[in-house]
Amino acid sequence: MELQGQVAIVTGGAQGIGGAIARRYAAAGARVIVADIDEDIAQENVMRILESGGEACFQRTDVSEESQVEALFQKTLDAYERLDILVNNAGIAHGPSATAHFLETSVDMWHRLLRIHLDGLFYCSQRAARLMIKQGDGGCIINMSSCGATQAHRQMVAYDTTKGGIEAATRAMALDLAPWQIRVNALVPGAIAVEGRSSIGKEGGDSSKGVVPLGRLGTPEDVAGAALFLASSDASYITGHMYFVDGGLASQLRLPALDAQPDPDLERRITGS
């Protein structure tokens, strides 16, 4: 029970990677606050934790809204009176709200991803750090990056930009918070199969297995195992780093070449010709 008695917030904790982290933390003895915008699925995950003998509660939270983040931290203090671990996992990566060619990326999409991935990280992390400093016994913040921070996806410019920002914030936060023994690290998942999709993006799907050195897609549980390590006392001398959970994906020279020819339909939409 590596996290016995500790309190953890997991944003985006309803399902996928966040859901697996919430369950793994609870199994390790932590009391978990599952923060998400999807109440039904989040409550299902809380019920799974409770039925397994763990302790958890739900708080509906849109991390891009500062007032909702404030309510999340108030709920945490009301329920458990402290905070030891924050996992900034909330985000969007798939579908029309997150994927578009650079030439067709809207201002709304750009700002939406900035608000969720960067504003949300700032709102949650600053409140968590201030609370941990007040408690006086350190703490742990884990941010969720992506291989897209350093190796770009096609048609995901806003997403990749924010993930690069998350890694820069992780390093800067780690330095500023080190005097209080608050450790800040980031997880960098590779091709993770989540709800039938691969987090490698539009280049993903089952074909992702062919470009992963370990020969399989990762699972949310793979990432949860790394998140447990970083939150545990075994990682007490680790801060400011990016931990890759990618089956070796980032270690190889390049992925197989894809068709990079101009898209005539896109060109017509952009030029009006």
Question: Structural class of the helix and strand makeup?
Answer: alpha/beta
Could you tell me how far the N terminus lies from the C terminus, measured between alpha carbons in angstroms? 64 Å
SS field, number of helical segments? 7
Strand composition percent: 15-25%
Gyration radius (Cα, Å) is 19 Å
Q: Kindly report the average pLDDT value.
A: 91
The portion of residues assigned to helices is 40-55%
The CATH C-level class name: Alpha Beta
Poorly predicted runs:
200-205
CATH architecture call: 3-Layer(aba) Sandwich
Number of strands: 9
User: Total domains, how many?
Assistant: 1
* CATH topology description: Rossmann fold
**Helix and strand pattern:** EHEHEHEHEHEEEHEH
Order of the strands making up the biggest sheet: 3-2-1-4-5-6-9
Query: Which sheet architecture does the biggest sheet show?
Result: 7 strands, parallel
CATH superfamily: NAD(P)-binding Rossmann-like Domain
**Global outline:** globular
Any overview of this molecule?
With 273 residues, the protein is an alpha/beta fold. It is built from 7 helices and 9 strands; from the N terminus they run E-H-E-H-E-H-E-H-E-H-E-E-E-H-E-H. It has a single domain, classed as NAD(P)-binding Rossmann-like Domain (Rossmann fold, 3-Layer(aba) Sandwich). It has a 7-stranded parallel β-sheet, with helices on both faces. Strand 1 (7-11), helix 1 (16-27) and strand 2 (31-36) form a beta-alpha-beta unit. The N and C termini lie far apart (64 Å).
